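Quick start: what a row looks like.
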Amino acid sequence: QSTWGNLFSCHLFLFFFFVFACVALLRVCVFAFQIMEIFPCKIDAIPLFDCLQEVTGFPLPMTDLGNIVSFLADGGTILVTFWRLRALNTQFKKAFKRLASRAPGLTLVLAGGTHCLEYVPKFLSKLKSIRTLNLSLDSIETRMYSAIVRCLPPRLTAFGVQYKFPSMQNAALLALCMPPTLEHLSLAGSDLSGDKLHPICQQFQSLPYLRTLCLKNCNLDGGASVLLNYHLSRLHQLQLLNISVNDTDRSSLIPSRFELRTVVSAIPGSLLSLDISRCSVTADDLREMMKTLPRGLRELRIDMRDRGSFPATSASILSELICSLPELEVLSCCTLDLSEFFPESTWLNLSTKLRILNMSSNNLDSIATKLFWNLHRYPLLEEFQLAENDITDSIALGTPILPQNLKVLVLSHNLFSPEGFAHLVRLLPPSLVVLDVNDCCCIDGSVLDDLIKKLPRLTELKTLNIGNGHIRPQLGLHADEIKQLAQSVSKGLTTLDISAHRLEVDSVQVVVEIIQMLPNLRELSLRQTHLALDKSAKATLSQVRPWSTHIQF
């Protein structure tokens, strides 16, 4: 009887164990399904526990995801989007704590009402060892903002926050709660107009290790320029300063009373990088920069929003400025319209240490010829952008060689002939990773052979943009010709733009084959083609590797 009893107990135990295992497996499957729903369609179907390592920065949709928290790990940094957090189960909360404790950085995108975010301050208070924190707080209430800011981890070295500070008191609270260990501070996108910047600037003296300060698109006004003039000199370790503006209306973000030269005059000698893109730059500002910018400056960005924003008569002063910086490695001067007054001798006196050079949208025309002829003077050049400059064949045919370390070449929206373009293709170095020649030449069958011969040698190529843009799309490549091109390109290609080529509705199957022969393809642009106008073609193509390849129609 005892034996039968033990046997019954054993069977009963196995039965309950089997039921428990089935329930646990079902929960794991449901959890995996919910996680996969979070990611956009361009991400490959990947194992549940590997997703934290494999996904690389695609945006997360802010939609109702069934009362769960979406997260994304990219290089050790966890991106957490709190959504209906009140219904979050305890096991999921514990999982996030474990993940956050192992990651060096954390990005929080906070959405929804206050009822969704009650757990956030408690969550932050447990992250004592976190070193990098980025907060997007635009949609939250003031009370929740105060609770979150008071719980900032004490050992932060990099901190970023985006918040429309309603008053100076909100900015003062943030200033008081910033840990003294900060080395990198970003307030990009925050509203710091009026007196809101004052308490933050006062806190600079308590941040002795601060090396980077980003005030991009912060609605700075005249008072801000005076404050920065007074307090920047206290940041003896400052290496990067960004006071640029986004592509939105500059007049509402950088009023004319914001004096750039007032800020520049207080720049410390330790500065290595300065970004004043889309600020109002005058000749007096440039002269002040010539006097105060450290000669050891390595990065300078002076991009305008549109032509006419930069006074053409200041081109010669700009030339003197950039030639006076012998350590310059990154130079970006876009949309300045330098055609009339910019001296050709500039290219002979620029720093030979240049790694990135962007002179797009400057109407350089013939001046650019001198630049191409002197590219051999910059052996370290890795990125070269000269888009929208009305460049013609005289440049391509007169160029003896391109830098052998070149990785990014952008020549879109220029005026090459097929012969000039073919000559340029033959000069491309094997190190190239990005090639953008969109709308710079009518790419048709006459240049196809040169491309097919050269592309197999570009083994590192990841991005290829050969869209025809607005240049006679009726003379572009046929689907079979593009297929030949795809067969010759590197299998590691991730982005392909074949806009405005002759892709008819009956070429759907050929495009499907092109997608399948490029296993790493993530972005494919078919804009301005007949395929983009046909609903059935779009439906067919959207079903080809929907988890990995995003198609733009």
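That is the whole record. The radius of gyration is 28 Å. Residues 2-38 form the longest helix (37 residues).
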